[in-house]
Amino acid sequence: MTLVSSLSLIILFYVIGSLPFALIFTKLFGLGDIRKVGSGNVGATNVLRTGNKFVAFIVLCFDIFKGFLPFLILQMYFQDISLLNKILLCHFAILGHIYPVWLKFKGGKGVATYIGFLFGFNPYIAILFLLVWLVTAFVSKYSSLGSLIGILVAPAYYIFINFNFYILIFFIYLTLIIYLKHTENIKRLINKTESKIKLSK
User: Fold this and answer.
1) Contact 112, 68 (CB under 8 A)
2) Distance of CA 122 to the CA centre of its chain
3) Mind spelling out the 3-state secondary structure of 26-68?
4) Would you state the pLDDT for residue 83?
5) 144: closest CA among 35, 27, 67, 48?
6) So what's the pLDDT on residue 31?
7) Contact 140/172 with Cβ under 8 angstroms?
8) What is the pLDDT of residue 201?
9) Of 5, 9, 139, 164, which residue is the least packed, with the fewest Cβ within 10 Å?
């Protein structure tokens, strides 16, 4: 793969990831500006706080697909690329979601797009993440806590099950980025002021 091809894919994947579906769909369905609802986060969990589960589900699906699509593109047109180069390129979709140029680099927290990324990279790890998230969120009623614990699945996998130094370092890097986006959530969890999941009206 040439340098031009790599740079073009980085830009493409960033743009794909930067599409703010939470903002787009809440406005399309007349729910207002999601940035003025709940936590102000441009993500599916905050859309759920509008009370519209259907729109929240649509946003979740689109945000997940943003993380998966780059892998699909590489599989179709760049099959000879190494695994490490593949994840380095594809993770720009996550960065696009977190730091979208259209919203002055103030995007979502990256978890849904990260899930899509995991499904493209290793479905087994993605399923483990979802199981950990579901159990944690169900027991604690905190979506953010489920995400924070679930994020640790990939690094743990490459420490204890299938050690790979470079991929481990990569996932530690991704974990730190997503944890930084959850700084306020972590503070609220410690202070026991974090919003709980409410699935019923």
Assistant:
1) no
2) 15
3) HHHCCCCCHHHCCCCCCCHHHHHCCCCHHHHHHHHHHHHHHHH
4) 93
5) 48
6) 87
7) no
8) 47
9) 139
